[in-house]
Specification:
With 239 residues, this protein is an alpha/beta fold. 24% of the residues lie in helices and 25% in strands. The longest helix has 13 residues. The protein is globular.
Length: 239
Amino acid sequence: MRQLLPTAADTVDLPSAYAHPDEGTPWVRANMVASLDGSAVKDGRSGGLGGPADREVFGVLRSLCDAVLVGAGTARTEGYKAPRAKEADVDHRRQLGQRPAPVLVLVSRGLDLDPASELFTGDERTVVVTSGSADRTARDRLSEVADVVVAGDDEVDVGAAIDTLAERGLRRVLCEGGPSLLADVVAAGRLDELCLTISPELVGGDGPRILHGAAAGLAVRPELLLEDDGVLLARYLRR
């Protein structure tokens, strides 16, 4: 893997390249992948667009965050499991005052989640974010295996959810989508950074873009650009 921006280099220290700014406030970073023609999925899954370089950066971003924020539908489609601590990351995370493993945060209005699934068997207790209109029985059922957070009345208030996570010490939030959740984060004005892998493929079809939902403008500036075997890995910061 080589670095193209901000300066050219034949090697790159990924943890340093993706280090969070030390601002003491919530920081929301999104990590997404897209094909050259703009699709966020291949064969119905974003995982179909990934490769070795994307997986390597994915692992680094996970190692640096406090919480992984993902929509429940994406978690089911992509076969998510609650994170477990990795021995290589524990000491570094402890030095930063972080828990041994990131907390999985699932956003779900319908709460169609299986309490027996591996979404709830990580080293840290999973958090489920929902709205006040969610079914009370489903909320009580999931409360046995997760911390259920109500943010918003009829719809999930993503901004309020991010503030609640920060109050719990989960300040560095990594949003892994899907496109509808990321659109909500952008619409709420809470996206600070976008990490985008551009896969050198043309997939066609009618798959969603990395943002899918109401239009919301956000200007960003390039901070980092890496390349590995034709795959581009970019980091953009909010202007």
